[in-house]
């Protein structure tokens, strides 16, 4: 039997039964469906009850454009060295250590229209027993990214047929305002270099999520 979305719900739910707050990572190339999968997992696990699962996006740790300009890296926004990897690892550590504390931990979000990080956008309440964090570089072993893996209870890797992934990525860029040509150039240029870096981490994942287990949603295009 191919793996289903319900199997993923069971597996994620089991992670949270260890008595302490668990952190599940979802990695994958740009456009592979990480954010969509994480959103569906969190929604399905929380159901109508009090939220006990929170989603924390790695994208919240994008450096701001002003800092990318200062560093001369704006042209490759989205590459591993255009994020605050050490800050992301520190937040994951804090989320684990704050288990049992009474205060909400705030994570930054990413604003897709402005394409800028936004502090304080993502609350993780004390009641969160499971944190689902998702992004491109969870399985990288270079520099500060190497601190991320050991802070995750499991890492799942979104694997999608390459042509379909690129098609969705182009459609998403267009949805957020790029012309068709700019969307294609970005998806096959900058995004593709990053996708290749991400693919190299696939073998370190605990689970490769097959297409059969991805949520059924009406995608772009
Ligand atoms: N399971 C799916 N079925 C159809 N379309 C999807 C699915 N998952 C994601 N998409 C679409 O593909 C695009 C990229 O998905 P997203 O979750 O943003 O990927 P990532 O976070 O990995 O970059 C989005 O526009 C989304 O609507
Ligand atoms: Mg995403």
TrEMBL record:
A Pfam family per the record: PRK
The organism's place on the tree of life at top rank: Bacteria
Annotated keywords: Kinase, Transferase
Every Phosphoribulokinase/uridine kinase domain range: 23-210
Residues that span the membrane, as ranges: none
Family matches, as InterPro entries: P-loop_NTPase (IPR027417), PRK/URK (IPR006083)
Protein name: Nucleoside/nucleotide kinase family protein
NCBIfam families found in the cross-reference section: PRK09270.1-2 (NF006743)
GO molecular function, one term: kinase activity
């Amino acid at each position: 039997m191919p793996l289903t979305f319900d199997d993923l719900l069971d597996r994620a739910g089991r992670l949270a039964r260890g008595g302490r707050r668990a952190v599940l990572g979802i990695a994958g190339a740009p456009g592979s469906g990480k954010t969509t999968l994480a959103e569906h997992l969190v929604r399905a696990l929380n159901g109508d009850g009090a939220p006990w699962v929170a989603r924390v996006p790695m994208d919240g740790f994008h450096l701001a454009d002003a800092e990318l300009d200062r560093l001369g890296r704006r042209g490759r926004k989205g590459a591993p060295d255009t994020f605050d990897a050490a800050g992301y690892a520190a937040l994951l550590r804090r989320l684990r250590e704050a288990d049992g504390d009474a205060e909400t931990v705030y994570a930054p979000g990413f604003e897709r229209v402005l394409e800028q990080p936004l502090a304080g956008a993502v609350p993780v309440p004390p009641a969160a027993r499971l944190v689902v964090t998702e992004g491109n570089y969870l399985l990288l072993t270079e520099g500060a990214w190497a601190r991320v893996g050991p802070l995750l209870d499991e890492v799942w890797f979104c694997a999608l047929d390459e042509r379909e992934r690129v098609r969705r990525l182009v459609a998403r860029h267009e949805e957020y305002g790029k012309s068709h040509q700019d969307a294609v150039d970005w998806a096959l240029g900058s995004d593709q270099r990053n996708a290749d870096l991400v693919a190299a981490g696939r073998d370190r994942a605990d689970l490769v999520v097959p297409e059969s287990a991805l949520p059924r949603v009406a995608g772009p295009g």
